């Protein structure tokens, strides 16, 4: 199973939705809180080119945000990525 990393903030509703979607699948997430660390925010920006959260990685693959994760789930591709 691939490791899941999510750059997030505590109050982001899309971060919470992504967490809920993955938790419903029994998947644990490594969360990196960018609201607590400027270094973590800079790291996220460097890796993704984005300033918004969540930014989700499955293994080394950048998935994007919650809507991208939800689209993968709806298309049936998410489980394959999680278990690759």
UniProtKB/TrEMBL annotation:
Keywords: Cytoplasm, Disulfide bond, Electron transport, Redox-active center, Transport. The keyword Disulfide bond applies. Signal peptide: none annotated. It comes from the Bacteria. It holds the Pfam family Glutaredoxin. Belongs to the glutaredoxin family. Has a glutathione-disulfide oxidoreductase activity in the presence of NADPH and glutathione reductase. Reduces low molecular weight disulfides and proteins. This is Glutaredoxin. The gene is grx.
């Amino acid at each position: 199973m691939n490791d899941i990393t999510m750059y997030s903030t505590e109050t982001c509703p899309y971060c919470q939705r992504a967490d809920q979607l993955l938790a419903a699948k029994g998947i644990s997430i490594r969360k990196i809180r960018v609201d607590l660390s400027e270094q973590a925010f800079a790291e996220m920006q460097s890796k993704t080119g984005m300033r918004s959260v969540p930014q989700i990685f499955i293994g080394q693959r950048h998935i994007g945000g919650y809507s991208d994760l939800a689209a993968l789930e709806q298309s049936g591709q998410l489980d394959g990525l999680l278990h690759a």
